[in-house]
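Section 3.1: Structural characterization of target chains.
Under the original work plan, the team committed to producing a structural model for every single-chain target entering the pipeline before any wet-lab resources were allocated. The record below documents one such target. The sequence was received from the expression subgroup and is listed exactly as submitted; it comprises 204 residues.
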Amino acid sequence: MPKTEPLTRGHKKKARTHRRLIDAGVHAFAARGARITVRDVADGAGVSTGTFYNYFDDIESFVDALALELLGTVVQEVAGSNQPDPARRFATATTRFLRFVQSGPDWGWVVLRLVARPDTDPTLLDELRRDLEQAHATGRFTLAPDEMAVDLIVGLLLTSIRRIAAGEAPPDLPRAVVERLLILLGLCPTEAQALAAEAASPPA
């Protein structure tokens, strides 16, 4: 097995600076949305614009990286939970994903741009497939977790994201979408309604 080289002081400093840029980006995007600039991020992180460009090519690539990191955090929180029911994990992850898009006026357009990029990290879809496969294997879902099923789910999510981004979605859209997806996947309407409402409820 190859040895893993320990992180040097330079690597650690670079990781800290990257973290500061991401944290500054979260605050800047929340305040300014798509009007965010390199200067906003650099000032928030306490670094020069030149330092920013050591990490990112431009503001668009930064925002894409920011969105991927935040979405990845959502996915990992759900995947790392102690929830044994894959149907509940699916409902929770999907609800949090849509609520992330609702959290800022421009996140929807960023996510849609990310989806259209061929080089976007497939990890998010991998987690979706894993939950679908486990739910089907345990009999929770009846719809086979093939590519058509994934396309149906992603298609509905993208349509919902467009509605949110365009300001055309009601506040409870995540709950309604999750309920319909659960029915599509094979849950009875009563349980689908209950799980969607549970996922939409604030954590205790």
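The CA atoms of residues 136 and 142 lie 6 Å apart.
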